[in-house]
Design a protein that fits this description.
mainly beta
Length: 112
């Protein structure tokens, strides 16, 4: 059973930065893809960024140029570096691992 635990969320002013971390129980070397999703109040959960086992990435249009996803296989951790945050980035951010594994979520709030 794969367990994911996120951290790094918080309250930040617009233009600020946060780095989210997702620690995975067990090795992530063989996990095909991992990613970050987010869900704002009243909205559907949406993909923010995805990284595959060989390192290729995909980003939502809203995240391109501002967010960067990375993975450290030695630490079984996936990161999401978020820069130039905007109020519309406010949401609960969830870590995802291929096979339909999810973390509990971490709140990100960006004030204007």
């Amino acid at each position: 059973q794969v367990q994911l635990v996120e951290s790094g969320g918080g309250l930040v002013q617009a233009g600020g930065s946060l780095r989210l971390s997702c620690v995975v129980s067990g090795s992530i070397v063989n996990i095909n893809a991992m990613g970050w999703y987010r869900q704002a109040p009243g909205k559907q959960r949406e993909l923010v960024a995805l990284i595959r086992s060989r390192g290729s990435t995909n980003y939502a249009d809203s995240a391109k140029g501002r967010f960067a996803i990375s993975r450290d296989n030695a630490k079984n951790t996936v990161y999401l570096q978020m820069n130039n945050l905007k109020p519309e980035d406010t949401a609960v951010y969830y870590c995802y691992a291929y096979g339909d594994y999810w973390g509990q979520g971490t709140q990100v709030t960006v004030s204007s």
